[in-house]
Amino acid sequence: MMKLVQERIGKTLIAVIISSLAIYLFAMYALVDPKDEGTANSVQRNQESVKAYLENMYKKKSIISISAGQEHKLNSPNYDQTVIKDYYNFMKSQNKIPKETGVCWAAAQASVLKFNGVTGTGKEIGYRVLDRANFLSYWDGEGSFDFAKADSLLTTMFSCYHKNKKGNNDRYDIYDTLCDEIDNGRVCIFKIVNHEMTGCGYVTYTIRYSQKNVWGKTVKKTEKQDFVIVNDTWSDNSLRQYSYFPECEIGTNVFSRWDFGITKVRKK
Fold first, then answer.
1. What is the b/e burial string over 217-226, where b = at least 16 CB atoms within 10 angstroms of the residue's CB?
2. Of 6, 76, 107, 197, which residue is least crowded by CB atoms under 10 Å?
């Protein structure tokens, strides 16, 4: 009888632990409001916007100065996804892309292809990306594009243009890996929450501020914040070539990391 009671207590305890863990994980992932963190809303479209973002981040501190370091960036084009979509719909007599459907992923692919020597205008290259993705059933013309297919699609597009290159997806150490790609002269596709862009550079901002320590003495401190330089796919070079995305908003935990990734370019 005592053994049976102990077994029941043990099972109950295990069930309570499992339930508590599940509730905790659910709260961490589903109930905590991330607001706009990691989304397209965090893309800063110019240096002034970056400084405003940092001022808001450090608004509880007395900011002394915010300064940008050297920008390490490559000359990849920014292609407006709306222009690409409109051209696709103009060329197609049926199965047109709905107005509300974004094709940022196709604009990012077109930018990477153009940087790697593909000929044609951005809208022409983007059209072929959309057409090929639809033909391969990677995209149905209406819904979102699955980033897991980004490397396969990029590889196919390089083949279409007779380039001996391929795509390679990566979801680990995203910022450091992206910086390595830039340092080696390669742009990449950069995925954030529900948006894809071209990762084409990086820059570090230095923030100097003062605050009182636990003894009430005012001390000066220095911190650094990194940003990915991107072609954001919302305009072309005539309006804006580069935008900025904060490295601190790239997800790294077991849940959020899958909303982020890069597609690198490699030789076949």
1. eeeeeeeebb
2. 6
